[in-house]
């Protein structure tokens, strides 16, 4: 298990968000739910304070802080997708109730930023032929949800 785990701050939706996320990723689960023992600024006694959960083997914590802070693009969660089917499944699931953006980015219904990226993209962009890599980058910049076939077509010219 990793030593460092991201903590996502929610006003009151920590458990709902954690359940949503674990429903989308294999090797995911709710690990524990900690309730307030006394009334706090985050909520009343016996309301959920912290949810520990695992997404695809990575630990996370969701905190009900009682105050809404907006998530920004300053931090996002990148998902390495093995194929177009995985890109499509996660894109549709995470975008449901959220907002789609450009270049494989979206914000989910809770405002968390995600990058849904096919594994092949890094290989295509790292090609020693700068013309091939540039074509891939140009194609990427025109996409909303990333399309493996379109990226590969750009690579091959």
TrEMBL record:
Pfam families: 3-dmu-9_3-mt. It comes from Rhizobium lusitanum. This is Glyoxalase superfamily enzyme, possibly 3-demethylubiquinone-9 3-methyltransferase. Residues 3-117 form the PhnB-like domain. The lineage of its organism: Bacteria, Pseudomonadati, Pseudomonadota, Alphaproteobacteria, Hyphomicrobiales. Transmembrane segments: none annotated. Keywords: Methyltransferase, Transferase, Ubiquinone. One of its GO terms (biological process) is methylation. It comes from the Bacteria. One of its GO terms (molecular function) is methyltransferase activity.
């Amino acid at each position: 298990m990793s030593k460092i785990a991201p903590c996502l701050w929610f006003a009151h939706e920590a458990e709902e968000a954690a359940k949503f996320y674990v429903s989308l990723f294999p090797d995911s689960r709710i690990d524990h739910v900690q309730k307030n023992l006394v009334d706090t600024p985050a909520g009343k006694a016996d309301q959920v304070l912290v949810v520990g959960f695992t997404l695809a083997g990575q630990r996370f914590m969701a905190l009900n802080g009682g105050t809404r802070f907006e998530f920004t693009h300053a931090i996002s969660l990148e998902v390495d997708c093995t194929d177009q089917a995985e890109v499509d499944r996660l894109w549709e699931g995470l975008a449901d109730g959220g907002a789609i953006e450009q270049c494989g980015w979206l914000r989910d219904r809770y405002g968390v930023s995600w990058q849904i990226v096919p594994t092949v993209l890094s290989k295509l962009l790292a090609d020693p032929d700068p013309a091939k890599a540039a074509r891939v980058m140009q194609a990427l910049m025109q996409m909303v949800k990333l399309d493996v076939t379109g990226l590969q077509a750009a690579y091959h010219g």
